[in-house]
Specification:
Blueprint lengths: L1 H14 L17 H4 L11 E9 L9 E12 L4 E12 L4 E15 L5 E8 L1
Antiparallel strand pairs: 1-2, 2-3, 3-4, 4-5
Length: 126
């Protein structure tokens, strides 16, 4: 029984390559909808371009800057019941100690349940 659990643990570890789960938190998260959920792509009738800036801990005596920049664009394509977009994020911690940059492509699909209700599904790759 122990060897079975050990094998299972090893298999799980082998399939867990690089895992990142730390997303920046925004105080006004509703201005970064694609960062919250890729299903939000195409929820507006017009194209949406968003820019976000976050500076955490700016007033400490010995500041370690933690700054995040983000830009996103989304567009609905009504004939396809879909929305498309991209998300570009740059996260800086310290004076160049740690920095991450990523670009994601986003797709959202809308399914009509009845006259008044829809369900949206989203996919983000990047």
């Amino acid at each position: 029984m122990i060897t079975r659990k050990l094998y299972l643990a090893l298999v799980v570890l082998l399939f867990c390559g690089a895992v990142q789960a730390q997303d920046p938190l925004y105080s006004q998260f509703y201005h970064a909808p694609l960062h919250l959920n890729p299903a939000f792509a195409g929820t507006t009738l017009a194209p949406r371009l968003s820019f976000n800036y976050r500076n955490q801990y700016p007033t400490f005596a010995n500041p370690v800057p933690y700054v995040t920049y983000a830009a996103s664009f989304e567009q609905e394509v009504e004939s396809l019941n879909s929305g498309f977009g991209f998300l570009l994020v740059s996260d800086h911690l310290g004076n160049g100690i740690y920095q991450t940059n990523y670009l994601s492509g986003i797709y959202g699909y809308k399914v009509r349940l009845n006259r008044d209700y829809y369900v949206r599904f989203g996919l983000e790759a990047g």
